């Protein structure tokens, strides 16, 4: 089954869509995720990076050499993480249009 999901940050400056079958959805309680999203856990949905299309101005920051965290510089929403070694992008479940 293939489908498309859409989402974006609080102010709408960053938008994304992802298509195809997600690899999985997960909840991470690690300290890096807690800090990055400012919450007890980070619920997110993983896709191969080439299935995720980002639009709008965003910033990224490495939380480790392998992991980039993407966020909106205007409203601060954590939008995605990009695991470079496996080339997976996960979008935050809270930023989905229809969570
Ligand atoms: Zn924003
Ligand atoms: Zn984590």
From TrEMBL:
Keyword Lyase: yes
Chain ranges of the CENP-V/GFA domain: 5-99
Domain of life of the source: Bacteria
UniProt xrefs under Pfam families: GFA
Keywords annotated in UniProt: Lyase, Metal-binding, Zinc
Cross-referenced InterPro entries: CENP-V/GFA, Mss4-like_sf
Family in the record: Belongs to the Gfa family.
Protein name per its UniProtKB record: GFA family protein
Source organism: Fodinicurvata halophila
Lineage summary: Bacteria, Pseudomonadati, Pseudomonadota, Alphaproteobacteria, Rhodospirillales
């Amino acid at each position: 089954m293939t489908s498309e999901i859409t989402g974006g940050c609080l102010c709408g400056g960053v938008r994304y869509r992802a298509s195809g079958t997600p690899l999985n959805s997960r909840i991470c309680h690690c300290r890096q995720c807690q800090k990055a999203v400012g919450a007890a856990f980070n619920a997110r949905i993983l896709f191969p990076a080439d299935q995720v299309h980002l639009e709008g101005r965003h910033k990224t920051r490495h939380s480790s050499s392998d992991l980039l965290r993407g966020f909106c510089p205007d409203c601060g929403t954590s939008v995605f993480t990009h695991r470079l070694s496996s080339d997976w992008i996960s979008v935050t479940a809270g930023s989905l249009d229809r969570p």
